[in-house]
Fold:
Amino acid sequence: MSASKPALTVLMTVRDGEPYLREAVESILKQTFQDFHFLVLDNASTDSSREVIRGFDDGRIELVELPEDVGQTAALNRGLQMIETPWVARIDADDVSLPGRLEMQMSYLRENPGVVLLGAGVRKIDGSGRTLREVEVAVDDVELRWRLLVHSTGFAHSAVVFHAGAARKAGGYAEELRHAQDYGLWCCMARSGRIANIPDRLVFVREHGSNVTDPVRAEQEVRKVLQKQLVGLFPSDRPETLEDVGGALRYDPSTPPTGDVIHRLQTLPSRFEEASGGRASTAALRDYALRWLQMARLGSLHRQRRAAAWIGLAVALRPALVGHPRFWLTLGSLAMAPIRRKRAHLDAVPNAAVDR
Structure:
């Protein structure tokens, strides 16, 4: 570590992270890039997490012991306010950074001024370290902005390095968000500079029983963040309309494909282009059209008219889809819907008789 002030702080929060904490910390200390401060906030752990951190004899580590559990989002904000370096790297207490991660990311940031948020590809592993799947990421600024809007994703929280000042200017992590706090921050930070990913898989992100999020609460939070993005693109629209647009983007089959909703979804790519100064890739726009065929299949069993509206949107966005296999599969699903409904009704009749 140099005698001068480092340019980077690695930020970790931990709450009862003993099973994987040592491996996570060691993966940071063994980085080929060594000039960093390592700020660890222990969120009132009840296990031996604090003892594990104290056991490392490394002057770069600063352990902050919070007297009560304030939640991860609030703990991250406390850490963000304490950081004095220009850059922040995130790592969770159960994830693993490959040795060259920080060196590659800091080198990229030096060579690409104007980038305020930089992620990387990741590998998902289970509690035993076995590979579950490889996650490829978009790397281009415009493509990432499109993903944040349409897919509500784009970055792995444990794989990012971001500009501390830009994050604080964006308001930090929104403390009302417990599961989508990173998504909310990335959307805000994207307004202050370019965003990017390194395609290399530099972090192993662990999935295990202890870090499973509440899917209902997570979905509610994602929609709340998405709603703000949609308001920025359609500022004069009624909230109810944009709520339905958000529901469609989140594959909610109960979303009514009204004329207003269909029109907003059809014009979304052009509104995005105006706002971002760039156009999503041909592949991304094709996938955007294909998703409305998926919406048609999701809603075809009970609402054929709704399904027909989603198909119409898909074809309006990309007329060539009439020759795509998914188009014909969707029409087949729509044609079979009355038969499936009749079978479902007949299957329910004996049960209804028993109930009487």
